[in-house]
Amino acid sequence: MTPGRAYLNTEEIRSFNGRSDLWGAWLVLHCWGIIALALAFFALWPNVLTFLLAVMLIGSRQLGLAILMHEAAHVALFKTRKYNEFAGEWLCGRPILADMFEYRRYHLKHHQHTQTAEDPDLNLSRAFPTTKASLRRKLLRDITGQTGFRQRSQQIMMAFKLAGEADDMSSQDLAQAFSGPVLGRALIANGVIFAVMWAVGAWWWWFAFWALPLLTWFQLVLRVRNIAEHGVVEFSDDPLRNVRTTKAGPVMRLFLAPYWVNYHLEHHLIMHVPCRHLPRLHRLMLEKGYGDKMRIGRNYWDVLKLAASRPA
């Protein structure tokens, strides 16, 4: 059952269902366009500041690709299913070393069992609240590439596991893992990115402007997003209390929360709603008087303070 049916009638839910091939194409083009503009900005004015800005912008758009892959996993990115599957796999998932099809299988379990013992994402949230020192260590490991390097290494190692061992792996392991063919497709996608970056820039651009953001800034904003969505919320089946929406201004949307990902509570209410409709769904929930019952963070800084509120 769609959790939103407890708060919205059939017509209201139906009003959010509209998908569009043009919107899907625009979102994918926008994501890659920001990446191209970041590279162009560095190429025109190469210095330390434009380098760091490019790493941050590209890392945030790598998260954007993950978000659009998530949209495709819910068959909400495009109206035409074949466009949805192709873009979700090749234009969004493979470039960031993700397998959309395995992710879809794993992620739907998260929606079915949110913040319960059966939730495969529970390990991302049950550690919070933690201490300030612990959160600092986590964020430091992310921004210095330690988390990213460890996770990518695990992905590669899992690619060489025997097929018979897959039954012994957890849902999250499978979502992170590569099979041989999946690893090959990820290498193809990154080979194309490497060739394009070399053609328009230099041979080292892929390492500096794709691998480095993926190992650092992407991991940092991914953790912050995960904390904001399910950190320090109720361990219950209440869809207004076991997930959080976080308010985000223009700067946060640029560097941390692209493509309306901050409206996570609304996404859980009706998981197949295209992301561009989530702000309107949020407004409707407030108009219907549910605002006081919803977990809504004032901003990401407040959510991080809450996540680090456990006494030392």
What report would you give on this structure?
- This protein has 312 residues and is mainly alpha-helical.
- It has one domain.
- Helix content is 62%, strand content 1%.
- It is built from 16 helices and 2 strands.
- The protein has a two-stranded parallel ribbon.
- Helix 2 runs antiparallel to helix 3, helix 3 packs across helix 11 and helix 10 packs across helix 11.
- The longest helix is centred in the first third of the chain and has 26 residues.
- It starts with 9 loop residues before the first helix and ends in a 5-residue tail after the last helix.
The number of distinct β-strands equals 2
Portion in strands: under 5%
Q: List the secondary-structure elements in sequence, H or E.
A: HHHHHHHHHHHHEHHHEH
Largest sheet: 2 strands, parallel
Class by SSE composition: mainly alpha
The residue fraction in helices comes out at 55-70%
**Spatial extent as radius of gyration:** 19 Å
Shape: globular
Helical element count?
16
Q: Which runs of at least 5 residues are low in confidence (pLDDT < 50)?
A: 162-177
User: What is the first-to-last residue Cα distance?
Assistant: 41 Å
Indicate the mean pLDDT.
Answer: 91
The tally of domains stands at 1
Major β-sheet strand ordering: 1-2
